[in-house]
Amino acid sequence: MAYIEVIDTYKRYKIGENIVVANNGINFSIEKGEFVVILGPSGAGKSTVLNILGGMDSCDEGKIIIDKTDISRFSNKQLTKYRRHDVGFVFQFYNLVQNLTAKENVELATQISKNSLDVDETLELVGLSNRKDNFPSQLSGGEQQRVSIARAIAKNPKLLLCDEPTGALDYKTGKQVLKTLQDTCRNTGTTVILITHNSAIAPMADRIIKINDAKVRSIEVNKNPLPIEEIEW
Ligand SMILES: Nc1ncnc2c1ncn2[C@@H]1O[C@H](COP(=O)(O)OP(=O)(O)OP(=O)(O)O)[C@@H](O)[C@H]1O
């Protein structure tokens, strides 16, 4: 069995009289330590998949096996524990606490988690050792995103989930953030799943899952992922 198995999951949202089928029988598997890109246009159902994997939403049918445990059967209490200890999230907007320094923002996450990493070491991993006493407003967008990555990985999560993490950044800064995520995956062995609509970055991934119109359209295993520095778009 793979580290992560998504087995025939469905998610439907009711909006007034209408039902939107956001995930229509999704199947894929992911091995431990992989860097995975989920690719697809707006509205394809990518965030729905990620939110279900992260325990923020639940599927109507199907199974989500994470490290041999089916989280689709979890109670709210079990989901809270799962989100707290096992999942790191990075969003398009960094969601940092503005009146806490970079270091304090990361500490906040380690306080609610049990296997957390050393905060200073984590800030060093993302290249922010010299900025840890700065407040978010004193940091660039890319630096703020790297604080949010540090916050996510300081929990030492089983899964690092990233929803369009470079969506608000320019080309060069976005590339630095992708490098931080790729390095994190390689250096810490964390399984990273990244959502994007930018197909150009797919060659950096070990596995590329294409989703369109609520279904998985293709899965490609890439034996020779490229360092992000070698990818131009
Ligand atoms: N909480 C919700 N309530 C109602 N409909 C929803 C909800 N979440 C998602 N949807 C709908 O489900 C479909 C898939 O949305 P989803 O956000 O998963 O797509 P996406 O591929 O992540 O798109 P984007 O790249 O624009 O974020 C869309 O039609 C969306 O409007």
TrEMBL record:
SUPFAM superfamilies: P-loop containing nucleoside triphosphate hydrolases (SSF52540). GO terms for molecular function: ATP binding. InterPro entries: AAA+_ATPase, ABC_transporter-like_ATP-bd, ABC_transporter-like_CS, MacB-like_ATP-bd, P-loop_NTPase. Residues 4-231 form the ABC transporter domain. The keyword Transport applies. Keywords: ATP-binding, Nucleotide-binding, Transport. It comes from the Bacteria. PANTHER family: ABC TRANSPORTER ATP-BINDING PROTEIN MG467-RELATED (PTHR42798:SF2), LIPOPROTEIN-RELEASING SYSTEM ATP-BINDING PROTEIN LOLD (PTHR42798). Belongs to the ABC transporter superfamily. This is ABC transporter ATP-binding protein. It comes from Romboutsia faecis. The lineage of its organism: Bacteria, Bacillati, Bacillota, Clostridia, Peptostreptococcales.
